[in-house]
Amino acid sequence: MKNCLTIAVSKGRVFDECVPMLARANIVPDIYPDSTRKLVLNTNHAKIKLMIIRSQDVPTFVEHGAADCGIVGKDILMERQSDNLYEPLDLGIARCRMVVASRSSWRETNKRLKVATKYVNVARRFYAARGVQTEVIKLYGSMELAPAAGLADCIVDLVDTGDTLAANGLVERETIADISTRLVVNKAAMKMKHAPVIELIENLGRLARDNKNEA
Ligand code: PRP
Q1: Strand runs (DSSP E) across the chain, as ranges?
Q2: What is the pLDDT of residues 99-150, one digit of tens each?
């Protein structure tokens, strides 16, 4: 895809929220992921293609130049902590928070804190900065189960409406970071495909400013 600009987009909520934004930037996929098994989608621009990828894999594709740009949550970038890509734009969509949550009855003790999360690097950094000894337990989903099941004292996870925490008897203890969707760019593509990459950054940047004003 040497002459194309390829944009890797996270599956799921980020994709759902970024499709309308891309459409406002006049980039429209020819088919939607729900109705196809195709992982590379053509768009109304002959030279722009979208790759539909699991969120954790978006930075990998962009770092290695398998995609020129990526659209991915800040949570994934915080966990990855890569110096190998540019992050020129906060798109201001799919906003949520990364928080620490536990059962309302939970009280701090002298025992080593057990933290269940899929964001193990973020959790380790967060507690290390406070000098708190932790055992971080890696999970791949349904983190909210861990405290009630006795697997962990607390979780580090994303919260949007707070419904999932409430439904599982958990309360927010602290916010670690505000999260939103970011545009990332491969470093070589920024040089070699400068004009189309800058055009994309400027177009999405205008819309991101609108999103910010509406928030
Ligand atoms: C995310 C997150 C929480 C939930 C929070 O999960 O991990 O479980 O959304 O949303 P709420 O505050 O509006 O209830 P998601 O559904 O994205 O799936 P995941 O477990 O695969 O991350």
Answers
A1: 5-10, 40-42, 48-53, 69-73, 85-90, 96-103, 113-117, 134-138, 154-159, 170-179, 181-186
A2: 999 999 998 888 999 999 999 999 999 999 999 999 999 999 999 999 999 9
User: In angstroms, how far is CA 77 from the centroid of its own chain?
Assistant: 7
CA of 44 to the centre of ligand 1 (A): 32
How far is the CA of 164 from the CAs of 133, 143, 152, 172, in angstroms? 27, 10, 17, 11
pTM metric for this prediction: 0.94
Ligand 1 atom closest to 162 (CA)? 12
- Atom number, ligand 1, closest to the C-alpha of residue 160: 12
Identify which of 174, 161, 176 has the alpha carbon closest to the alpha carbon of residue 102. 174
Which structure tokens are listed for 18? 């970024």
Distance CA 208, CA 106 (A): 40
Neighbouring C-alpha atoms within 13 Å toward the C-beta of 150 = 0
Cα(77) to ligand 1 centroid in Å equals 17
Nearest CA to ligand 1 atom 7: 158
Nearest atom in ligand 1 to 167's CA? 14
Residue 1: band (very low, low, confident or very high) from pLDDT cuts 50, 70, 90 = low
